[in-house]
Structures are given as structure tokens and as C-alpha cells.
User: Fold alanine--glyoxylate transaminase from Musa acuminata subsp. malaccensis.
Amino acid sequence: MDFVYGPGKNHLFVPGPVNIPEPVIRAMNRNNEDYRSPAIPALTKTLLEDVKKIFKTTSGTPFLIPTTGTGAWESALTNTLSPGDRIVSFLIGQFSLLWIDQQQRLNFRVDVVESEWGRGADLDALASKLEADRSHTIKAVCIVHNETATGVTNDLAAVRKLLDEYRHPALLLVDGVSSICALDFRMDEWGVDVALTGSQKALSMPTGMGIVCASPKAMEAAKTAKSVRVFFDWNDYLKFYKLGTYWPYTPSIQLLYGLRTALDLLFEEGLDNVIARHSRLGKATRLAVEAWGLKNCTQREEWFSDTVTAVVVPSYINSADVVKRAWTRYNLSLGLGLNKVAGKVFRIGHLGNLNELQLLGCLSGVEMVLRDVGYPVKLGSGVAAAAAYLRNSTPMITSRI
Amino acid sequence: MDFVYGPGKNHLFVPGPVNIPEPVIRAMNRNNEDYRSPAIPALTKTLLEDVKKIFKTTSGTPFLIPTTGTGAWESALTNTLSPGDRIVSFLIGQFSLLWIDQQQRLNFRVDVVESEWGRGADLDALASKLEADRSHTIKAVCIVHNETATGVTNDLAAVRKLLDEYRHPALLLVDGVSSICALDFRMDEWGVDVALTGSQKALSMPTGMGIVCASPKAMEAAKTAKSVRVFFDWNDYLKFYKLGTYWPYTPSIQLLYGLRTALDLLFEEGLDNVIARHSRLGKATRLAVEAWGLKNCTQREEWFSDTVTAVVVPSYINSADVVKRAWTRYNLSLGLGLNKVAGKVFRIGHLGNLNELQLLGCLSGVEMVLRDVGYPVKLGSGVAAAAAYLRNSTPMITSRI
Amino acid sequence: MDFVYGPGKNHLFVPGPVNIPEPVIRAMNRNNEDYRSPAIPALTKTLLEDVKKIFKTTSGTPFLIPTTGTGAWESALTNTLSPGDRIVSFLIGQFSLLWIDQQQRLNFRVDVVESEWGRGADLDALASKLEADRSHTIKAVCIVHNETATGVTNDLAAVRKLLDEYRHPALLLVDGVSSICALDFRMDEWGVDVALTGSQKALSMPTGMGIVCASPKAMEAAKTAKSVRVFFDWNDYLKFYKLGTYWPYTPSIQLLYGLRTALDLLFEEGLDNVIARHSRLGKATRLAVEAWGLKNCTQREEWFSDTVTAVVVPSYINSADVVKRAWTRYNLSLGLGLNKVAGKVFRIGHLGNLNELQLLGCLSGVEMVLRDVGYPVKLGSGVAAAAAYLRNSTPMITSRI
Amino acid sequence: MDFVYGPGKNHLFVPGPVNIPEPVIRAMNRNNEDYRSPAIPALTKTLLEDVKKIFKTTSGTPFLIPTTGTGAWESALTNTLSPGDRIVSFLIGQFSLLWIDQQQRLNFRVDVVESEWGRGADLDALASKLEADRSHTIKAVCIVHNETATGVTNDLAAVRKLLDEYRHPALLLVDGVSSICALDFRMDEWGVDVALTGSQKALSMPTGMGIVCASPKAMEAAKTAKSVRVFFDWNDYLKFYKLGTYWPYTPSIQLLYGLRTALDLLFEEGLDNVIARHSRLGKATRLAVEAWGLKNCTQREEWFSDTVTAVVVPSYINSADVVKRAWTRYNLSLGLGLNKVAGKVFRIGHLGNLNELQLLGCLSGVEMVLRDVGYPVKLGSGVAAAAAYLRNSTPMITSRI
Assistant:
């Protein structure tokens, strides 16, 4: 694959797949194993127990599905809902749009609540709908915790508050693909019924494992949900959970060992410290954007995302040129603007196993690229702003003090 | 994972997941990459072109789906059929049974044609059905090329011959999970409409990629098939094929590089040589079984499988004890008997990146295990029989002559 | 490197370098690190402590030298002896010959005590020399514990006994390259003054680390030894040991982590169990050789080596053809006969991270090769003999019971 | 090794060992092999041929020795000189000092020509000595091309010019440890007689291979050199070169494959482009140092090193604190000041497989550290200065245009 090669490290700042830490790469560097031997179930048992911690749930039932985030979406929907069910779904960017597309193609009746791209979910609209829905025709509220296309984080606690306020029994289904393990996420406290993520996001693994967690209420709903499903059917998993062999079909041995190590690293750092690190990197990025005199695609601070920042370029620049230039000259991988914001924003993913100097290297690269494409940024300005903040907020590495 | 450890190599002889060759492990030993950079599409393009060769098709359209064999099944069915469609499906062992279960749960009307486990598909029954079906209500014939549970290989050419004889337009959907890249498989010549396999089988990779190939007729059927599908929808792939970016959602970067190397190794050895090697290993295994005085679960030579041999144990022995003993004493992983043949057979998988001495090591292990569990096999007898054959049939390693 | 490729695993049965266990390969799969950070000294400290256990010494001082076995030899000699010093050295095969060559080129006066190749060290000759040496002109006795060329193990306890009997103060320098971690070795009990091995032997790592351990008496000798040395000078190490930074020059980060894991695996299995396993594999190999009607190059049972067996071929066969054929047809790597026994013996290395079925696979391969080159061995005969013994002696894998 | 762990990548900016590119890590991720099979000699042959290119020699004879740079020094000296030989050696920093220490301990008569640390070799002194040495008692001139402790690059062409001017036959022995593959180095053109480097420096591999190249004149000298040597004796290599088996003792299989890939990467980038990249990174670093208001330890531009920069800290700061802080807070590995400049300088290694954004990340980290330890640097100032230069000088990545 000749043209991939460039000297030095690739600076991977797309919002997924993200950098894999060396210990996880090492853990996955192995031959296959018989997944029916006692070893793999024993390993799986620890994974199912520990993976609940990243959702902050004790009552949830997790599923480790050999699929992507798109498959995890499908698993969440088809196991809890029946064709024709009414659901409320928020359209705030490309990934919520894709989920809604899936919801529609799965034959749910989707009440799409649209916001301008760059804004969060319209919770007032949700309130109205909940209020009006005395007969509880709404079976589920579907929301993307963090919209990766625009860098918008929705307020899940507020959604739960509304549901409680109206005593509405709708299920709360949450796409946590670019949030879980990076943003504050509290499945039990927020009454999330299905939460899901993918291995290649903040867990910092390769793609290939969709991680879905279902509340007792979701598990109950699964008993009557009539959506057709086989590969994604939770019941097939539950059957094998009971047997203690865990797998209805062959899992990736490598991803299981990778997940074990990924979790170990998260717990060693401390999940709250991981979240604080993402908060730090997010804020530092935003300070740089501000210093560059550019706009964040996200319109209000309350929605700022700590995992991805979509940067709006001046109208005379095509953001795709930023991404291309970063790749072809500086070995820097940035995210493209998608759909409505194509050409208008480029994205800096700052999630997963990432530290301060990696981010500053990226920011210095973005500065050079911006100059390359004709935007008169002051070199060093964003780095300086970010560094000023990071120097005050970065903790010592606990294990090295 | 302490209790996995045993000195030396694990001898992996389950019929999947199988041994991964070192070059593939190396190729996958890498960080993530941006799958929207020019590199990954360029890589994918070569994969889609080259993967057709393992199906022996020039007209087929391949899909590399982040899923398992079970997902590949679902992809084959839902893209070509509509709920209520009548299909004929052969039940000859656990994996055909599971596929039939999936077919039924996906709401097709399944004409199950059952054979005794250990026998191949009942083609006479198929002939009757085809003959009777003047109005072409049968939309598809579903057949497992190689039933992994019993070590039975079905005669696909004969199936095609029947369909042609009766000029029946039914689609021919083939599970090639434990055959493709190991047994003779000719998609175009045999008029297979959808063929599929999984990465962890004869391709000798980790689990995680379902490889599905569709004939032009299958692609045409996909346009009108009404089965609900999103994650498995070929159209989503086709849209991105046209764009030249190839991926509707994030692929596993590692598996892509792994597949590149796996294909390179297959082509370096020569696909026909690979198939000949499997034929050699299969025959050697059967000679050993015979020398041990044991029965092959497969009742007739015409059905003998060159990828897996299910060995029937005497009635006073529980085959699960054979598997357990092999694992706990000799670091040898054998396949359990499943469902109807649970306790009655153990399975030796001899597929994928495997050579003669590995197999002989396994056979010598099986001999010791058989003695351990009380079967009075003559030690060395199976190895001798297998070696006598292998010594006459094993070619020189081309690259070393 | 095209012509290396052959399907399946390479069966590596040379007496070094040997198979590396997957956990060690994984541990070494890493970027470089600053060896002056606190991490590497902390790691090194554990290594220096734990490596003493493989020598069975508590009073010895270990050195982990970035070199091969040949360098380790040089380290042992130049740190303890002065040019012109008289030493007694046993010539029993190619590796003792090479060591003697080194001793001579380093300007020691070497009393070479030669045995026929295939016999052990002539201890009677040693006794005579010690008896005659009232004035203690002999400064050291140099002996190869296990001669890798002929598969002869010398009796170190007997050497110590002689030295004690004659109250002779000569240093006892031992090449343990193909013995330590595989054969019973007791540095303190046997009063060995310098013992050494290489990482690529029974430690089952890549080549590159010479491991040398010096008794207090050897350390004392080092203070006055006048041999010129810099790279191999223990004093440079000791200086850094005192500083707690440990390294006079840059170590291989990868080998340090590899050694950590290699030791962990040895201790998990239990060093005595490791030695018992080698004893088992050695005996099984010899039983096979006997069953084939071939002779062991080693003339008496007391010298039989449990790490390598040199098999004498009939005079009408060139043993190099055995080795060549094994490689070109069966992907089996055997050891050539060296020097005096070139063409006459081939060698089976059975040391390091190796188990019973691997060995049986090798033996079945040797049988086929022997037939290929014209020796009328009964296929399966050696495997049967080995298996009969192994089935009675192989323990359950502790971690899996 | 708990306390190593910190989130994200370690930023490795010590002047060795340096970052290993992923393709090299992958190439080394392998089991051992028989080094006497045809494969390893075939591989070695290509290495010996290609490694000459990094020295820019066609007439030199290369040796790949399982050792470190210190061992490579010893190989260069002992193979070409005899005890008592007079040599001229330049002391300009810690590594030249260590080499001189080795020279003295190897019993050469060393004319030490000392410069203040931070200055280059005193070539006037050399001129005087050469002029005075009509009888050619000086057998060799030993010079470190790039003094890693102070970041000083000596002018080898000028040394050659002096030798030629005085028609002096002394051998020219060059330590190229931190220069070869990074700085302009021309063995043949400059009449270098022995040049050497270590694998862990600009070749970007693990430690463990000393690479030594000898001119025909050096090879001639080796025939009469009386220094005692065995492990490092070139003759042992030459003997095996003639046999075509290449190795007098076991090489590291992993390092051989690693070197193959390392060379491939260098040639793919183009050796001159590699050197230009180092020049670019070196200059960018110096611009940052200047912007910080700090002094380069190197006193004159003519000596500036493009592989390592020693930065002088203000007298009220201990440079060890800079290094410690970088490690404990920012996961940044910098080089300590050594010996005379301990506490006074810290070092930024910018050699090997490294690109612009990696360096800028490092520089931003250094800025934060400087503030942490009390130096009032303006955050972003160094990054800005470096980036301004890099933006103008960094080429497009050829393979991606």
C-alpha cells in the first residue's frame, strides 16, 4: 500500500476510528483460539461484568455484538420495538440522520424533531409531544448523545427529566457511539433503556464490536417486540448466557482480549479521570479555534462536545481542502464535513487514548494547513491558547509521581 | 487469563476459528487509520477485485461485511427474498439447522428437506419439489456446501444440474463458510447466486468479516426483495461503491490489511494447490480414523469433507471427554459434537493455513486421548496410515526447491 | 522473502534459536522507550532479581549483556582471567571447540582435554590434572554443560566433586547455553563460578541477550583479572548497578520486556516442571530414535541430553539431505551435523517452549524424511514409541484441571 | 510495569533509542527461524548489499554485529589497531569521552584533543599533530561525527582534507551513531576507514545491532592488527561471508527482518530526503530555542546538529527537573544533560522516523515544562517560530500527491 507511507506517525484526529494504545494492539496480536474452550467464556464473563461500568449501570444487561455502530443501532431498535411503533427521534446532524433513516426503513413511525445543524436536540418540541401524548403512543425516544458530525452533545439528564415530568413510559434509546468512555454517561441515573457504542471510538480499539446495554425495562420490552431480527436478537445471546458459553456465534478472539486490555487501561486511569481528560482536550481545542478567529459549528456552550469539534471555515475556503492538505503534507488525518456541512466544516476528533501533546501537535498542524489554504491564522496562536489552559489543568500522571 | 496457559503451542483443530498465519497476524498488528482517506478505498478496491477469485466468479458482486457467518447468512437471505417467500432448505446438521431457524424467523416459508445427520442433502427430494413446482413458487434453494457439524460436503454441481434440468428459476443460495478457500468452489460455473463465507474459516483470519458474493441474478432480485434490512442492505454498499469510498460504515482497518495478506498468501500458494492441500489433509485424516477402527460420521465417500472430519466414538465413550482431555492434557483443541451428535462425535478441523506435520501432531494427540478415555487404539496406527499417504502425495514447497 | 513461505507453521526443531511463545512475542511488540526514565531501571531491577532463579543462585551477580552466547563466553573469560592463565577445557564437540578457540585467541594457556565426539568430558583426565597441580597453576576449568553439536550433557556435580576433593581453587566456568532453563542446573550447589546462557535458547526469546551470572568468587577474581575488556567489562555494569540506572549502554527495550514475560511463563509453569518437561521430551525423542533402529550420537545414557538429540544416519545417507528434505518438503527445520559429524548426524532440538504434540509432529516428519532419503523406517514406529511413553508421563496442564 | 502507563502516546524525544515505525515493528513481530536455512543467508545478502548505501560506500565491507554502539566502537578499534598504537581522538562531549575511555582501556596511546563542550573538534590541533608527525606514528584519527551529548556535528570533510594535505596515512575511524541515516555522510568521498552506527538511532529500530563498515584500507589493516578480539573479530565474519552462510554466531532473526524493512522505508523516502527532513527538523528546533530566549549548547552554527539539540537552561533551573517534569506530567521523554553539562542542558532528540507535527507537539510540551519549572517562556512562541519555517520548507508527501 505504497501511498500510505509518510515518515513518522500518522496523526489520527478523525472522530473514529481512533488511536489504539500499544497495550491493546499487543493484546490483540495473537492467533485464534477455540471459543468453546473454558478460556473464552471465562474471559467473556469478566468482560460482561466490567463493561457495565463504562455505562455506569449495575442493572443493565450488556451485549458484545460482532458488528459496527450501525449494527448496534439496529440491535437497540429491533429488540425493543415493533413495526409501526411511534418513536420520537432528533435530527441534529449526519449521524442522527442516518439513525433516523434506519428507524424509518425498519418501519417505525418516526416523529423527526429537527434542529439546525450545530444545535442540540429540541427538548421543547419533545416536551410538547410528551405532553400531548396522553395515550402513550410514543414507544421510544431516540437520541444521539453526541452528534459526531457537528460536535454537539445533548443533555440526556434533561431528556430523562422531561420523561419523568410527564410520567411517560417511552423507552429512552441512546446512541453513545462518540460519547461513552469519554463523556459523562450515567445509564442508571438517567434512566437510559438502551445505550450503545462501538469499539473503535472512545474505547480505542479496532472496529468490530458493537457494545449494547439494555435496562431491565428494555429487556422486558424485548419479550414482546415484534421487529424481525435474528443476527441481532438478544434472545440468542441470553440463551448462551444461561449456558455459560456466552456466544451464539463465533466472536473475534482478538477483540475480546483487546477489550479486556482496553477496560483495564480505562480503569487504571480511572473512568472519571478519562472523562476529565476529554473535557480538558475538548476545551483546549475550542480555545484554539477561538484564537484562530474561527467559529465552532456548535452554536452554544451547553452543547459543546468534548470528543469532537467541528470547525467552520471562512466561506472562501472549502473545508475538504483543509482535510486533504493535512493528509498530503503533514500526515494529519482530520474529519471531513458531512452532508449539510460538507465543505463548510472540518472536524478534529479528540477522543480515545490521546494526550495533551498529541493534541497540540495536531493543532499546530491545523494552523499550518489553514495558512496553506489561504486563511491568515497567526501560527502558534491556537497552540498558545490551548497550552495556556492545559498547563493549568493537566494533572501529573499518577503512576509516575 | 491464567488458565489458558500451557507450554508450547496450542494445537488448534476446531473447524473454526482456525490458525492465522504469521504474515496475517503481522499485517493486522497496527493502529487504526482514517477510513475516509484515499488509502483505504484504494486498498478496498484491490480486495473487492481479488476476493472474487476465491469464489471463482467474474460476474459476482462481493460485499465485505463487518459481521460473522450468521450475519452473512442474513445478508444473503434478506437482500434477495421477501417475507412469505417459499424456499427449500436442507437440514443435515447443526449449521444447516441454524440457518433454517434463521430462515423461519425471517418469515420465509421453508420447505425443510431433512437427512439423517451424516448424510448429504437429499437431492431426490429436491428433484421432486422442483418437478412439482411448475408455477415456480420456490424462490430459493438454500444449501450448506459443507456441514461443519458432521463433516458432510454437498454436491453443488448436482444441485445446479437439477435446477437446470427443471429450468427452475429459483435462486441458489450457498453457505460456503467451511468450504470456500478450501474445497473446490465454482460460483459462476455452478450458477450459485449468493455464496458466503466468514473470515475465520479457510481464509485463516480472525472472526469479524462476513464475505458475501452475489450473482447478477441475485443483484436483480435485491431490487425487489422486501425483507426488512438496513445494516445488511447491499444497497447501502452499492451507493458507496459508486462513490468510490466503498464503506457505508466503519470497516475494521486491521481486517482489511489482514484480508490483503490472506489473499496474497492464497494466491502465492495457488488456489488450486490450497484446495489440493485440503484434499490431502482430509484424506490423511480419514485414513487415520480408519486405522483407529473408528467410524466417520459421514456415511458415504461422496460426502466426505476435506475441511472437517467428525469421528464417531464407541458408545461407551462420551466424545465430550475426548475434547476435554485433549485440551486439559495435550493443549489440543478439538471440536465438540453438536446437538444430535453431542457426545457421539468429536471433530477434527483440518482447514485453513495448516500443513502435514501439524496434522500428524494432532493425530498423534488424538491417539493418546483415545487411550486416555478408554478406547484401545494402537498408538501410532493412525499417524502411520496418514503418513504413508502424505509421504506419497505431499509436493515440495515450490518456493524452496 | 518469497522462498521462506510454506503453508502452515514452520516446525522449528533446531537447537536454537527456538520457538518463542506468543506472550513473549506480544510483550516485545512495542516501540522504543527512554532507557533512562524511571521505568526501565524499575523493570531491570526485577529482571536481575528473578533471573538468578534460573541459575538457582542466591549469591550470584547477573549481567544481561546485549550480545550472543559467543559474547557471553568472552564476558565470562575476560572478566575472571588474565592472559597466560592456565585453564583446563574439555573438547567434546563443535561448541566446546569454538569456546576453546576463543580461549586460545584470548591468550590463555589451554589444557585441552579431548573426548571422542559423542562422549562426555573426560573427568579422569581432569582428576589427574588437578591432582598434579599442587601449585594451583590451573586458574579455571571451562566446561560446556550441554554440547549442542552432539547432544551430550556433562556431569557438573561430578566436576565440582573433583575440585572439592583436590581442594583446588580453580574457577568453574560453565557454558549453559543449551542447558539453563531446560536441564537441572544448580549454580550455588555445584559451586559454579560463572554460568551463562543466551536468550534464544531455553528462555525461548529472540537472540540478542547474553545472560551471565558470576559467583562471589568470580566477582573477586574480576578485580584482578587483567584480560583487556571494555564492552564486556562487568565493572561498567557494576558502576551503573550502584547508581540504580543499571545500563552502561543502551539495552534492547524489547528484550527486557520479553525477558520479563519469559521469566513469568517459566515461573508460572514452575522451573522444576519445565525441567521435567524437557526430560520427558528428551526421553520420548530417544525412544523414537531407538524405534527407528538408528543410533544416538551420544554414546552412553549418562550423557544423554534432554535438549538436543543428534541422530546418526546410516553410512549410505548424507544427513545434510535429511535436513534439506525436511525443510523443502515438510516445513520442518532440523539441525545439521557440524564439523566432525557433518553428514553423519542430524539434530533434533527439543528445548524451550515446546510441548508433546509439537514433538510428535516433528517425529512423524522425520520418519517421512527418512523414507524420502532412502532409510526404510517403519512409518509411525517412532511416534508410537514416543507416544507410549508420553501418554504415561505427561501431566495435566495445571491451570486447566 | 504499572508506572509506565500514561494515556496516549509517549512522546519519545531522547536522542536514542528513537521511535520505531509501525512497519518495522510489524516486520519484527515473528517467531524465530533456523538461521542456517537458505532463507536467512538470502535475506542477509540483500542487507549487506543495501546497508552500504546508508554509508554511501561501494567499496566498504559491512558487518552487522549483535551488539550496541559501544560494541561497534570496540569492533572498529580492535580490528584495525594494535596495543600501543598512537591515535588522535577528539574529546568534545560525553560520548567522545566514553570512546576515548574505551581507547585507553584497549591500550592505545591516545592523544586526546579536547574542546570545550559545545564546540566541535579542534582541527587546528589535528593539523599541528599531523604536521609534526613526519614519521607517521599516528595510526588513526578517531572522531565522533555527531556528539550526542552536546548536539555538535563535526566536519568530516575537513578532517579528510587535513589528512590529505599532510599526506598522512592514518586511518580515519568515525563514530556515526547519531549521524548515519540522518546527517549527510559520505564514507567513500570522505575517505572514512571505519564508520559505524547502532540500530536504535536514525535507523529507527530496536537496540541490538551494531553496524560497522570498513574501507579496503581498514580491511588491510585488520590483517595485521594485534588487538585481542574474538567476538568482535571481522575475520570470523569474513570466513562465513565466503561460505555464503554469513553468520559466525546466531543473529537476531527479528532484527534482520526489521533492518530489511527499515532500509526499505529509507529508500522509499529517499536517503537524501531523509537527510533533508532531519535538516528541517533540526533547524525548526533551533528556531524554537531561539524564540524561547534560550541558548543552544552548541556554540557555532557550523557545528549545529540536525539530530539532537542540547538546550541550555538558565542557571536558576536544574535541567534534570525539565526532563523529570516532561515525563511525569506530559508523557514526554527528553534527554538529560550528561557529565559536565548535567543539570545545565536538556536535550531534544529529533532523529529517526519522525515528522513535523510530532516535533511541534514536543516543542509545545517543552514550553509548558519550561513554565512549570519557572522559566517565563511565552507559550506558543517556539512552536510559532518552528512552524513558520516548517510551513515553508515541508514538502508534500510524495506518495500522496
About this structure: Residues 271-291 of chain B form the longest helix (21 residues). The radius of gyration of chain B is 21 Å.
